[in-house]
Structure formats: structure tokens, C-alpha cells
Write a structure and sequence with these properties.
Length: 174
Amino acid sequence: MIVWLNGTHGAGKTTTSTLVQQSLPDARVFDAEKVGETLMDITPGLPETDNFQHWPPWRPLVVETARRVLDYAGGTLVVPMTVLVEQYWREISQGFAHHGIPVRHFVLHADQDTLRARIAGDTVLGPDSPFRLRHLDPYAEASRTWLHAEAEVVDTTHLTPSEAALQIAGAVKG
């Protein structure tokens, strides 16, 4: 099974994914961003883009990598990865469905004020990361138009990462 944690950058996916993994038997965290980093390391480089998700190979490579890991190790893969383009999510989810891999898709959501406050205090990319701030509007648009309808929304506005992880793990187990 795949437990996909979606949401904007800075929503707490990475922290929560580790806690979810610890709460589920035989679970592992698979950071699909590493697939993008591998593509970025190709020399000479692939066509210029501001987001490796725009490269057509990224989506099927994420599916294939996850499938192969599950075939090898079994269990559950917890995937903390922002996907805000509906067509990209369709490609990924249809790829998993094609291989018979069940997916639980969760969105870690927080209101805009909370997200901005978290980004302002970010110790990973630094306070007020332009990268994270740039994704707030696309996240709001995706949430309004398709994302929240395609996932189980976990409102983390007033939750700690531990509380969010327990909610997600409980939903997966239940």
C-alpha cells in the first residue's frame, strides 16, 4: 500500500511521514523527491524547468520505483510529496492502480495564516523561504479546484505533527 502525504511545501509532510511510518507495521518512507534529484543530476541536463515534476519521466519513475520497492520489501510506503498539478496526480494514481497498488491519499492542510507563520519560522530552508512562499497560491488553487476532493484532508492548523500522524495511521489501520 501507498500512503501519500500531499500538501504545500512547509505543511509538515516530512516530519509527519516519519511519525506515520513509525506507527504502521512494515512501513518505510519513500521520498519521491529523490527521483527528481536523480533526473536533475543527468548531464548534460534535461530541458530547463523550474520543477522536476514537469519532466515526463518523473511520474512513471516514481510509480515504478515504489512498485519495485513494494515488490521487494512488501509493507507500506509512506510518500511525503507535494503534487499540485491534477494531471500529474492522475498519472501517478493511475500508475499505481494499473499495478494493483492501493493508495491512501492524504492532504496535510493548514490555513494560509498558519502556513505563512510556519514558513516564517522554517529552520530547514530558512525563514520566509521564497520557494515555499511561491507554492502557497498554487496550493490554494489546487485545494479549491481538485485536490481536497481527491484526498482525505487532515487539517493541521491546530494539530502537532504527532497528532496528525496518529490520525493518518488510525485511518489507514481502521
